[in-house]
Amino acid sequence: MATNLQFIQQLSTDGKVTNFDLQNIFDKGYEQYNIFLKINDSSGDGYISLRFYDGSNTLITGSEYDHAGIELKSNTSFDTSWRGTNQSQIAPIMTGGNPNTGGGALVRIFNADDTNSFTFVIVQSSMTNSSNLRGTKTIGVHHTAEQITGVRVIGNSHSYDTTATIYGVK
Question: N or C: which end of the chain has fewer CB within 10 A?
């Protein structure tokens, strides 16, 4: 069981962005990587998703992802429609609504360094939306066996100011 976090890197955006690239953060010899996202300020009624970069640092935009998630809302019923096979991204990493005052996510990535295995993702997040709370729980897989070197965090109809702290887990 993994119990020891090893700090790798911390990166921040310079103001609000819609895409945040975390390149060359893997290939450090860990079976699991944890990315902690701290969303300081965001706008838009969209959501945040992710895509991977492959071993040649090319963004994987094809239909190579499967995912399933639930959006938890304090003011209305849960949204269980977040699921799909052969998708172009994994979502939701975090959901929004205007105005958002901030929140955070833990993105756990497994087998990124292993060229013979699929790469798996488990995500949980929370965010405030006006006086309401939102959270997500998502699982996903990149179903092509190849080395993954990084991720792109994507704002879909959503912009955000964030800091990412990356750890390897032993």
Answer: N
The residue type found at 88 is S
Distance CA 24, CA 121 (A): 17
- Tens digits of per-residue pLDDT, 106-122? 999 999 999 999 999 99
Per-residue burial over 118-146, b if 16 or more Cβ lie within 10 Å, else e, is bbbbebbbbbbbeeeebbbebebbbeeeb
Quickly tell me which residue has 């849960």 as its tokens.
78
* Token pair of 26 as six digits: 């893997």
CA gap 108, 46 in Å, rounded = 22
pTM here? 0.92
Tell me the two tokens of residue 9: 């890197």
In whole angstroms, give the CA distance from residue 16 to residue 103.
Answer: 15
Coil vs helix vs strand at 142:
strand
**Residue 128 pLDDT > 90:** no
Question: Residues 9-61: pLDDT tens digits?
Answer: 999 999 889 999 999 999 999 999 999 999 876 676 778 999 999 999 999 99
